[in-house]
Backbone:
């Protein structure tokens, strides 16, 4: 009797699993030959915030979401067909996340591109020029030894690091042709010593600080960054709490970002401010793509 009950239970579980599997594989739409199953839709649905899922529940639930997904599929297919996807390096096999990223870029850079004119962007740049002011900055690598209770030991550490790097610089000058290649080789050596010697948080990254506003640096470090030529290495710098070596990779004077540098962000700002126009453009585009393509719905299979 127990064996019979167990067999029946196992059969019921197997039937349930098979039903769930078949249900997930059911075709709910076909967009220009691209089949969409319940499982495909669920992968995207599960990425939607709970609050937005609740909004969909008020306007058709999963069916409304499916319609929205089909519209996005049409745009994504057009992005691939037009060559835009390949141009921006989108992967051949698009995951849900990759599809979403491709859709967003295609909308911004193609579908809605004509909504924002160069004149509008230039006007914002001219009217808000003061917002694009940039501080004096330096792109640095550092090797640091904190003084703590033993400044002499810290200085000795940095002095030895400097001698090692300067010895390597002499060898690089003898063996490496071309100034850019020599600077690159020197940067590699500096990074290697920084990783091994520096007590700064940047040590694992070869002492790289990236771009840093000079006013945030110790005055002696800032002055070195300001006065040194890009690609050169300082001597031992006696900062307030440490001894340091500095490699100046680049330096920027205070000023205003160029129009070319901020054109993209301004366009994004204007698109966000004109979202209704953007959505209207997307709706128009998807309607055209749907009319020119072939969309089949099997909503009776939608779970």
Residues:
């Amino acid at each position: 009797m127990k064996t019979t009950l167990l067999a029946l239970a196992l059969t019921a579980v197997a039937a349930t699993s098979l039903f769930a599997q078949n249900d997930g594989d059911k075709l709910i739409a076909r967009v220009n030959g691209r089949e969409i199953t319940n499982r495909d839709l669920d992968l995207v649905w599960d990425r939607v915030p709970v609050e937005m899922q609740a909004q969909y529940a008020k306007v058709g639930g999963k069916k409304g979401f499916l319609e929205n997904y089909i519209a996005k599929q049409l745009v994504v297919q057009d992005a691939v067909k037009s060559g835009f996807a390949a141009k921006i390096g989108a992967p051949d096999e698009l995951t849900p996340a990759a599809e979403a990223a491709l859709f967003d870029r295609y909308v911004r850079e193609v579908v809605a591109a004509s909504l924002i004119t160069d004149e509008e962007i230039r006007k914002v740049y001219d009217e808000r020029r003061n917002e694009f002011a940039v501080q004096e900055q330096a792109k640095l690598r550092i090797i640091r030894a904190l003084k703590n209770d033993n400044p002499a030991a810290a200085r000795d550490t940095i002095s030895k690091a400097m001698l090692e790097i300067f010895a390597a610089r002499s060898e690089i000058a003898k063996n490496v042709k071309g100034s850019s290649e020599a600077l690159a080789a020197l940067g590699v050596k500096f990074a290697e010593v920084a990783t091994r010697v520096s007590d700064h948080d940047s040590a694992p990254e070869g002492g790289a600080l990236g771009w840093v506003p000079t006013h945030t640096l110790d005055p002696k470090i800032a002055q070195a960054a300001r006065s040194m030529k890009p690609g050169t290495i300082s001597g031992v710098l006696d900062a307030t709490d440490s001894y340091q070596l500095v490699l100046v990779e680049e330096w920027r004077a205070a000023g205003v970002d160029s129009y070319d540098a901020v054109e993209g962000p301004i366009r994004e700002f204007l698109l966000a401010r004109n979202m209704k126009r953007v959505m209207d453009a997307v709706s128009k585009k998807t309607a055209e793509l749907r009319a020119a393509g072939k969309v089949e719905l099997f909503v009776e299979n939608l779970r």
User: Anything to note?
Assistant: The chain has two domains: 22-116+274-301, 136-253. Residues 13-21 have pLDDT under 50 and may be disordered.
